[in-house]
Amino acid sequence: MAFLIAIFGLLIGTLAAHVAEAAMAKRALAKPACPFCTAPYRPLQWCATLAFLTGQGRCRQCGRYFRLPRLAAELFLALGWGLLVGLNGLNLRVAFAMLTLIPLAMIMVTDLEAKLVPNAIMLPAVGAIFILGILCGPALPTLKTWAWWHAPAGGLAGFIVLRLLVTLGVAVFGPGALGEGDITLATYAGMVVGFPLVIITLLLMIAYGGIGAAGVIIARKGSLRTAIPYGPFIVLGCATTLLWGPQILHWFLS
Are 81 and 101 in contact (CB under 8 A)? Predict the structure, then answer.
């Protein structure tokens, strides 16, 4: 079951990546084409993962490789969906958690590609999770009981922490350290996991961000002032919390 759900997640991730690219470019959704020469892709190339696995990861006209953010989004959703079902089985609450990963996969594309967190993606997602969070609670697959305020409180915590980090980052490193879109993304992630597990998400976000920054410095491709997309670290923190948040919190408290 988990494997089949992962394959389905790969297909949905393919669609999500194409929608994200259209939102990023502010254009209508159309058949996938090379972003460099606009040559249409073959049907098998519509999915970046299948294209690379079958040796068709280049545009047949200009010869340039596909952009890796598409591949990252597809694999993120496939792995996330497969793990959610593998760890918890398939039920309505797990399906709820699976759906919340779709906007996160889309942000993997836009932020890795252009350091953008488009409002066209995030504002509808924030509105939807706000309503569903009040009605159904946070999207944690193992959640048994909740209060109506748990999801909004998580979103508020995410908003406040990222607002402070953005202000601090701009003061210390200048514009570009963190963006306003990261605040919206953290608000969404906070509502997905709710309070108090939003604390785990924020701690993981900082830890993943530190690892990413260290990797850039060790690779000698930047410094502490190098602007790197922060959205993927928020995405990974949220996804990790959905999968193992209660266990991590229990480990912290024990």
Answer: yes
